[in-house]
Structures are given as structure tokens and as C-alpha cells.
Amino acid sequence: MNDTATLAESTLSPALAAADGAVVHVKGVKKRYGDVEILKGVDLWVGAGQFTAIMGKSGSGKSTLLGIIAGLEKPDEGNVCIMGQNLDGMSDHDLAGLRRRSIGIVFQGFSLIPSLSALDNVMLPAFFATEISAEQRRQRACELLEQVGLGERMKYRPGTLSGGEQQRVAIARALINDPAILLADEPTGNLDQETGASVLELLLNLGRVHNTALLMVTHDPDVAAKAGNVVQMKDGRIIDAHA
């Protein structure tokens, strides 16, 4: 999951939350690449504001599942519903609109545009948000950068920021459209232990403030220990899920 194409475009009418309170509902999802079956019938339910950690060894299907939930990949079988909307059959245009309105994504590798300032990187996903003005977009981006502790570094480009600061910019960018769901693929994986712990606390605090559901892939048991729900994956299946 490192596609900056998820950062923009399209419009879609607001989605309504599912009647059962789920912001993410995955049912019987299977995915193959050639002869290799990556996901083998995965079921997953995530409620509003819930922090769910997905754990498992490399190759267990964690990142593939996250990509399917984001609408970046299509399952071969099964269904994914986001905010009550079934992704099956949606056009690329409408999927991009759903991502823009309802899903924020934090990548392990930051995926910032080097030539843009921190402020411009944060504003980028809202560029096609016609319901807000350019001034409102800028104001919200400034507020988010203040919240992540980068109020004094808004004009800095990524190359002049530390790894932890770049990840904070990426988190602010993911929240610019006030998504109901935040997907994070090893967001602390490229950071030292102290910086990673700080970024995790920031994600959790912002999730509480914005009532955002956080679905995070991680190898770190200390990260998973802070989750309200922990999902264990092995060989393309969920083998355990517990609070």
C-alpha cells in the first residue's frame, strides 16, 4: 500500500453509516495473485471510533486486506461495505470519491510529495472537495498541523523534516477530509522506538478527538496492546480476534 493516487479526485454523495454501526464490514473476502491464494475467506467488523490492530507474520495477508478495504484492490470473492456502502461494482471514480470522503490512509513510507511544503501536502487530498472553499481547506490543514505539533514547520518540505515529523504530516493529511476510517499500514515501522511511541499516541488521541475508527497493521505487540480489538492473521485467514 503505497499509492499516492489515493490522495485525490472525484466526488460522491455522503455515505450513511450501516444500521449495525459498522464503518467497515468485510464478509467472505478471498484474493488470489496467480496461483497463490492470499486471502481465504476473511470476515471483519469494525465499529465507529474503534481501534483494531491486525497482526500476523509477513505474507499473512494483512496489507492485502487493508488495500481491499481501501478500495485499492478488488476481492475475487466476498464483499466489503464501507459506511454501509458495498464496494462491489463501484466505478474507480466513485471509489476515489468514497476514499476522499470517508477513508484516510497512513503509509509506512510517508508518501509525501518532496516538492510541496508540509502545508501543501496536507491540503492535497482536499483539493477536489468542492464543498469547502480554498480558505477553509487551508485553515483546516493549519489546524491539523497545529494538532500534530508542527505549527512552526508548515512551510518546510519533507526533506527538511525528521522521519517522525514526516509521519505527523502524513497523519494530518489523512485527517484533512475528516474521515470516519483511518487505515494505517505499519505507521511506526520506519521510526525509532521513542518516535514510534509518540506517533502512536498521536494517532490514538486524534482518533478519540475526531471519533475516527483506526484499523492498523502492525508487528508490534506493544502497539496491539493499546487496541480495543486485536485480529490475528495467518496464511490468509483470521485465526483469532479478541478485545
Report the radius of gyration as a whole number of Å.
17 Å
Give the second-level CATH assignment, the architecture: 3-Layer(aba) Sandwich
Helix content: 25-40%
H/E element string? EEEHEEHEHHHEHEHEE
Structural class category:
alpha/beta
The figure for the number of domains is 1
Q: What would the principal axes of the Cα set say about the shape?
A: globular
> Given the structure, what is the number of helices?
7
User: Would you tell me the overall average pLDDT?
Assistant: 87
Strand order of the largest sheet: 6-7-8-3-9-10
Number of strands: 10
The share of residues in extended strands comes to 25-35%
User: Distance N terminus to C terminus?
Assistant: 26 Å
Poorly predicted regions are: 1-17
CATH fold-type name: Rossmann fold
CATH homologous superfamily name?
A: P-loop containing nucleotide triphosphate hydrolases
- Describe the main β-sheet briefly: 6 strands, mixed
| CATH level 1 name | Alpha Beta
Topology of this structure?
Blueprint: E1 22-33, E2 36-47, E3 51-55, H1 62-69, E4 77-82, E5 85-86, H2 92-102, E6 103-106, H3 118-123, H4 134-147, H5 163-175, E7 181-185, H6 193-210, E8 213-217, H7 221-224, E9 229-234, E10 237-242
Parallel strand pairs: 3-8, 3-9, 6-7, 7-8
Antiparallel strand pairs: 1-2, 1-4, 4-5, 9-10
Helix pairs in contact: 4-5, 5-6
